[in-house]
Design a protein that fits this description.
alpha/beta, globular
Length: about 325
C-alpha cells in the first residue's frame, strides 16, 4: 500500500484509511481483529474511529466499543507504533436511549450531541485515551461542527490538548466551507494548531442540485481544498454503502437521496460500462478513481463490515487508470 503525505505535515499515512466504526458492535471481535491484522500486513497505517461508535447498534451503549476494541488489539500485538490513529469528539450523543430505534439504527432528528466545549473536549480525549490504551492519538477531529460553542473556546481547548501531547494534529468533520475558513483564520491569528484533515462524505457521484448537507463535499469545498493543500480531504463513505454494485440496492436507498438525478444516472452508466471493460466492480473502480485524484488529493476511508467486503476493496489499490479513462469518467454527467 502506498503512503501519502497528510496535508503538509511531513507525516506519511497509507493511501487508504481503515474505518473502524462497526468494529466491536456490528462486526464481531474476531472478524475485526482479522481485518486490522490484514490491513497492517498490507502496509496500511491509517486507522479511523470515534468516541461514539456505535451507540445506535447496542441498547444501553453511548459509544466507545470501537475504541475499546482497538485498545485491546494494540495491547495484544503492540502495534501502536505501526499505526496512525485518529479519533473524534463532539459527536457523543447525550440522549442515546431516546434516539435509538428498536432493532438498531437511530432517529437522527432527535439526536442531541455533547458539543465542542472546552470541558467536554478535555474529558473526551482522556476517555478516548483510556479506552484506546495509549497516551496519545495522532489525529483528533471535531466530529460534528458545533455552532453553539464559540470557536475560540473550541480551538483554544484543542491547542491545549496538542500542547499536552495527547494529540499530535487536529481535524474537522461534517463542516461547511465558510466555517473552515473562519477556523483557519482564528488559528492563524492566535497561533493555534490548524486543522490538517477535513473528513467529509465524498464519492464519484456528485451531490444533487440544491442539496443542503454540511457533511457532503460540494463544488465550493472542492475548490477550497484545491487552494489549500495543507488540508487533506479524508473521504468517508466513498462507495456509498456499496450501492454502486447493486442497482436494486440503489432504488430507495437513503444514501441515494443526496445524489439522485440525471447527473447521477449518467455517471452511473459510464461507471458501469468502464468497470465492465476493465473486469472490475463499480465499487472497486470508484475507489481507484478516488486514489487517482490529485486536485484535491483524497484519502478514502473504507469501512467494511465483513472480511469479504474488506478483501473486495483491495483490487482497487493496484488498478491503474489511464489519463483517457480518467477523462472519460470525469466528463460523465448530465
Amino acid at each position: 500500500m502506498k503512503q501519502v503525505e497528510l496535508g503538509r505535515t511531513g507525516q506519511r499515512v497509507s493511501q487508504v484509511g481503515l474505518g473502524c466504526m462497526l468494529m466491536g458492535t456490528t462486526t464481531d471481535e474476531e472478524t475485526s481483529v482479522a481485518m486490522l491484522d490484514r490491513f497492517v500486513e498490507a502496509g496500511g497505517t491509517f486507522l479511523d474511529t470515534a468516541n461514539c461508535y456505535c451507540w445506535w447498534e447496542r441498547p444501553g451503549s453511548d459509544g466507545g466499543e470501537s475504541e475499546a476494541l482497538l485498545g485491546r488489539w494494540m495491547a495484544r500485538g503492540r502495534r501502536r507504533d505501526r499505526v496512525f490513529l485518529a479519533t473524534k469528539a463532539a459527536g457523543l450523543v447525550v440522549n442515546a436511549d431516546e434516539a435509538r430505534l428498536d432493532g438498531g439504527g437511530a432517529d437522527w432528528s432527535r439526536v442531541r450531541f455533547d458539543g465542542a466545549g472546552a470541558k467536554t473536549l478535555r474529558t473526551s480525549i482522556d476517555d478516548s485515551l483510556r479506552r484506546l490504551g495509549t497516551d496519545h492519538v495522532d489525529l483528533f477531529y471535531i466530529h460534528v461542527d458545533d455552532r453553539e460553542t464559540p470557536l475560540e473556546e473550541t480551538l483554544e481547548a484543542l491547542a491545549g490538548i496538542v500542547r499536552s501531547g495527547k494529540a499530535r494534529y487536529i481535524g474537522w468533520s461534517n463542516v461547511r466551507t465558510w466555517r473552515m475558513e473562519r477556523i483557519r483564520a482564528l488559528c492563524e491569528r492566535y497561533g493555534w494548531p490548524t486543522p490538517v484533515a477535513l473528513q467529509q462524505q465524498h464519492s464519484y457521484l456528485r451531490p444533487r442540485t440544491g442539496l443542503d448537507a454540511a457533511s457532503v463535499v460540494d463544488h465550493e469545498q472542492l475548490d477550497y481544498l484545491r487552494a489549500h493543500d495543507d488540508l487533506s480531504l479524508v473521504a468517508y463513505s466513498p462507495i456509498l454503502r456499496g450501492i454502486y454494485d447493486d442497482a436494486a440496492k440503489r432504488r430507495g436507498h437513503w444514501m441515494m437521496e443526496r445524489y439522485a438525478g440525471p447527473d447521477a444516472d449518467a455517471r452511473l452508466s459510464v461507471l458501469g460500462e468502464t468497470a465492465a471493460e476493465l473486469g472490475v466492480t463499480p465499487n472497486q473502480l470508484v475507489l481507484a478513481w478516488l486514489l487517482h485524484q490529485t486536485s484535491p488529493r483524497a484519502i478514502p476511508l473504507i469501512g467494511p463490515r465483513t472480511l469479504e467486503q474488506y478483501e473486495a476493496s483491495l483490487p482497487a489499490l493496484g488498478l491503474a487508470l489511464s489519463p483517457d479513462l480518467l477523462n472519460r469518467l470525469d466528463a460523465a454527467g448530465a
